[in-house]
TrEMBL record:
Coiled coil: none annotated. Gene3D superfamilies: HUPs. Pathway: Cofactor biosynthesis; coenzyme A biosynthesis; CoA from (R)-pantothenate: step 4/5. It comes from the Bacteria. The keyword Nucleus does not apply. This is Phosphopantetheine adenylyltransferase. The gene is coaD. Reversibly transfers an adenylyl group from ATP to 4'-phosphopantetheine, yielding dephospho-CoA (dPCoA) and pyrophosphate.
Length: 163
């Protein structure tokens, strides 16, 4: 069985992420989307919220599982029995960082390879950071994220502004 993990923060999940999820799920028997618990960043959504959002937006892709994890992606892949880590690339700047990470992961575990998928052209500009920034100024984010995520983002930003 060909199994891969696609790790990330997904804060929030964007159409770019969903593009990589759908395309990588077509390449493997099982894709585990790993939602990173990152203590260094302050996410907009809790890890539980991000997992639940991803479960909802990937429910029509039968070979996708969504789980949270902490620690190294390569360790998470090994724990799940995956032979591949999937990473999306938007630009050459992503490649530089992701190449270093994949080489480090190969040293940590030579049995796990990294698969790079270039983001489809219509999403090459898109990042979760951009979505949050546009939303924080009241801009329209409906072209960036699934409909069920739009209101969740505005509501979460509104909650944070009220505090």
């Amino acid at each position: 069985m060909r199994k891969a993990v696609y790790p990330g923060s997904f804060d929030p999940v964007t159409f770019g992420h969903l593009d990589v999820i759908a395309r990588s799920a077509a390449l493997v028997d099982e894709l585990v989307v790993g939602v990173l618990v990152n203590n260094v960043k302050t996410p907009l959504f809790s890890v539980e919220e991000r997992v639940n959002i991803l479960l909802e937006v990937t429910k029509d892709i039968p070979n996708v599982r969504v789980e949270s994890f902490s620690g190294l992606s390569v360790d998470f892949a090994k724990q799940r029995g995956a032979k591949f880590i999937v990473r999306g690339l938007r630009a050459i700047t992503d490649f530089d960082y992701e190449l270093q990470m994949s080489q480090t992961n190969r040293i940590l575990n030579p049995e796990i390879d990294t698969i790079f998928l270039t983001t489809s052209l219509e999403y090459a500009y898109l990042s979760s950071t951009t979505v949050k920034e546009v939303a924080s100024y009241g801009g329209d984010i409906s072209e960036f994220v699934p409909g069920i995520v739009v209101d969740k983002i505005y509501n979460k930003i509104w909650e944070k502004h009220e505090k």
